[in-house]
């Protein structure tokens, strides 16, 4: 059975102190609560080790938002997958559209990052999704399939089974304009069909596919009620316990 997951992506927000306060606040709010999904928070690199220390990581998984495409060495300013793993973080968000658009992350670079994340025992939360022009030209299915193929489809079935996917239509990220539940379900079903064709039904059925793009307390329940939507990757609404908790509780 695939996991239901609600993951926060803090992006470049929160000082260390503010981040610790948020993480601890969420940990406290979840304590003793029966929730029906895994909860993850994606913090900036510098927060990882302190957040892991400050919370119960059985209750909340911790994710980095990126890692390097190189193992180690003279790459000033980079943070490797093994360094992320050494903090106690268990996940890494890879292929976010902001990384692709602003930092030139190509499918080939992402392929290396995925490999290194897996080699270091991290679970990649791998983001895919089309821009508005691609949807308007009815190319969104092709674009998403090509993104999967270019960065993930050389993985063995055993390795692919460790990946969490996040479908994030770029036009819905931070815009307040979410995909309709029907649009999300349509794409998630397409992704699952694509996975069936590549890796078979068992692996496809076990792969969690999250939806991301302006998810909030008001729309989460309807989005998550679709059979192929296994949770959410939450940006803006993950920056406060009051906004994030109701999304976790939408399951
Ligand atoms: P948003 O961001 O929820 O602020 O739209 C989602 C994301 O980029 O992961």
Architecture overview:
The chain is α/β, with parallel strands linked by helices. The chain has one domain (5-248): TIM Barrel (Alpha-Beta Barrel), CATH 3.20.20.70. Helices cover 43% and strands 15% of the residues. The chain has twelve helices and eight strands. The chain has helices spanning 16-30, 48-54, 81-86, 97-102, 107-119, 132-136, 140-152, 157-160, 181-199, 201-206, 220-224, 241-248; strands spanning 5-9, 38-42, 60-64, 91-94, 123-128, 164-167, 209-212, 231-234. Strands 1-2-3-4-5-6-7-8 form an eight-stranded parallel β-barrel, surrounded by five helices. It is globular, with a radius of gyration of 17 Å. 2-phosphoglycolic acid is lined by residues 9, 168, 173-174, 212-215, 233-237.
Keywords:
251 residues; alpha/beta; TIM Barrel; eight-stranded parallel barrel; 12 helices; 15% strand; binds 2-phosphoglycolic acid
Mean of residue pLDDT values: 97
Our estimate of the beta-strand percent is 5-15%
In terms of per-residue confidence, which ranges show pLDDT below 50 for 5 or more consecutive residues? none
CATH class: Alpha Beta
Global morphology: globular
Number of helices: 12
What order do the strands of the largest sheet run in, or round the barrel if closed?
A: 1-2-3-4-5-6-7-8
CATH-assigned homologous superfamily: Aldolase class I
Q: How much helical structure, as a percent, in the residues?
A: 40-55%
Q: How many DSSP-defined strands?
A: 8
Order of helices and strands: EHEHEHEHHEHHHEHHEHEH
Q: Give the count of structural domains.
A: 1
Which fold name fills CATH's third level, the topology? TIM Barrel
In oligomeric terms, what are we looking at? single chain
Cα-to-Cα separation, first versus last residue:
15 Å
The distinct ligands, each listed once, are: 2-phosphoglycolic acid
Biggest sheet overview: 8 strands, parallel, barrel
Rg over C-alpha atoms, rounded to the nearest angstrom:
17 Å
Structural class of the helix and strand makeup? alpha/beta
């Amino acid at each position: 059975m695939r996991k239901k997951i609600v993951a926060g992506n803090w992006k470049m927000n929160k000082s260390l102190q503010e981040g610790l306060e948020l993480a601890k606040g969420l940990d406290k709010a979840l304590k003793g609560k029966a929730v029906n999904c895994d909860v993850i928070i994606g913090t900036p690199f510098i927060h990882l080790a302190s957040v892991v220390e400050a919370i119960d990581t059985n209750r909340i998984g911790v994710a980095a938002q990126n890692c390097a495409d190189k193992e180690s060495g003279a790459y000033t300013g980079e943070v490797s997958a093994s360094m992320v793993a050494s903090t106690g973080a268990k996940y890494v968000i890879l292929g976010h559209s902001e990384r692709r658009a602003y930092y030139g992350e190509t499918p080939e670079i992402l392929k290396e990052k995925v490999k290194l994340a897996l080699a270091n025992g991290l679970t990649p939360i791998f983001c895919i999704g089309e821009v508005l022009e691609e949807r308007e030209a009815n190319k969104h299915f092709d674009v998403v399939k090509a993104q999967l193929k270019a960065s993930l489809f050389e993985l063995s079935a055993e390795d692919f089974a460790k990946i969490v996917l996040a479908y994030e239509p770029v036009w819905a990220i931070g815009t307040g304009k979410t995909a309709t539940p029907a649009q999300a379900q349509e794409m998630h079903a397409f992704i699952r069909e694509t996975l069936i064709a590549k890796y078979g039904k068992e692996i496809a059925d076990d792969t969690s596919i999250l939806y991301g793009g302006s998810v909030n307390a008001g729309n989460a329940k309807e989005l998550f009620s679709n059979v192929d939507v296994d949770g959410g990757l939450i940006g803006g609404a993950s920056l406060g316990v009051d906004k994030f908790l109701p999304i976790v509780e939408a399951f």
